[in-house]
Write a structure and sequence with these properties.
Structural class: mainly beta
Strand content: 35-45%
Length: 321
């Protein structure tokens, strides 16, 4: 089956807007399925996780798609008009392919990248902190080419995080962000970085939130990275790890529990709050905070101070970092 990307627009009463696409629906086959006799050369996989509306009414849609070699995954942005037509001045004929550091640079296994869901737009966030609208995409994927580990040293294939900011007008990488390069982060060793949400703040700062597993005796920790508007690690932010600009926290580790982050928000007070699931204790263990022993996954929400340098003790049950 050849997957396609579909964009739908509805009027306020829930009826499809017939001025958009065909009867309110736009179908885009961004990567076509390719067969050689009975062999699938490219399965044409597509999944769309983000959409934003620009000031002029144009839409930018994000999609994770099979790469042109049929082996890995790429991240695409597509800009379309209010009528559902592609904007030719954006990327190549309306499509911008984002080359994260690990994409299409490895053959065994295939390089891959995924943009991730965020709130509220999807894998894509709109940056309106300056006169020019910009787009921020955050995700995770194969480690950059040349990143080695092990004895003998070999290319790392565990996931790293990626963040990039591009022009909403042309799709080109913003030269004022990380010197015009994609930002990449490895939490250490061959630990998998699982990015889950991206947040663009009013001043243009960017937070990538998710979790990583730090090995035996540690398990999953919440990991959030905060970048300045210039695309550099914010050294005023950070907790639980030597790298400044990075927050790592699992208040339940002493009880054998784990913490994961699937959403990340900043409240009007400045407090950061995460939510996701994890374990408050080891299976049938004892909780230092008075929770019932864990026998299945628990909902985990943790508050952090506005600086991201400590657990906010006024949020929920008093917790350690």
């Amino acid at each position: 089956m050849d997957r396609v990307t579909i964009v739908a627009r509805f009027n306020a009463d829930g009826i499809p807007d017939t001025t958009f696409g065909s009867g309110g629906f736009l179908q885009m086959n961004l990567v076509e399925r390719v067969m050689a006799d009975t062999t699938v050369v490219n399965d044409g996989h597509e999944e769309s996780l983000g959409i934003v509306e620009l000031d002029d009414g144009h839409l930018v849609v994000q999609a994770n798609v099979r790469d042109q070699n049929g082996k890995g995954t790429d991240v695409l942005l597509v800009r379309i008009t209010p009528a559902g037509e592609r904007v030719g001045s954006f990327g190549l004929n309306g499509v911008q392919r984002l080359v994260f550091a690990g994409i299409r640079q490895l053959t065994t296994p295939a390089g891959w990248a995924r943009a991730v869901r965020s709130t509220p737009a999807g894998a894509l966030e709109l940056d309106e902190s300056s006169a020019e609208q910009k787009l921020v995409v955050a995700g995770f994927g194969t480690a950059p080419k040349g990143q080695l580990s092990g004895e003998p040293a070999a290319q790392r294939t565990d996931p790293d995080r990626y963040i990039v900011r591009v022009s909403a007008e042309t799709g080109a990488i913003d030269p004022e962000f990380n010197a015009g390069k994609v930002f990449t982060y490895n939490s250490g060793g061959t630990f998998a970085d699982n990015a889950r949400r991206v947040l663009v703040e009013a001043d243009g700062s960017i937070v990538s939130a998710g979790y990583s597993n730090f090995g035996a005796g540690f398990g999953n920790y919440i990991v959030a990275i905060r970048l300045t508007p210039a695309g550099l690690l914010d050294t005023s932010f950070g907790l639980g790890i030597v790298n400044r600009g990075v927050l790592r926290s699992n208040p339940f580790v002493d009880d054998g529990g784990v913490a994961e982050c699937y959403a990340f928000a900043r409240q009007s007070s400045g407090r950061y709050v995460t939510t996701g699931y994890g374990l408050a204790t080891a299976t049938n263990g004892t909780s230092s905070y008075g929770y019932a022993p864990t026998t299945a996954q628990d909902l985990i929400s943790i508050g952090f101070t506005p600086s991201g340098t400590a657990v906010d003790q006024s949020f929920g049950i008093r917790a350690r970092a």
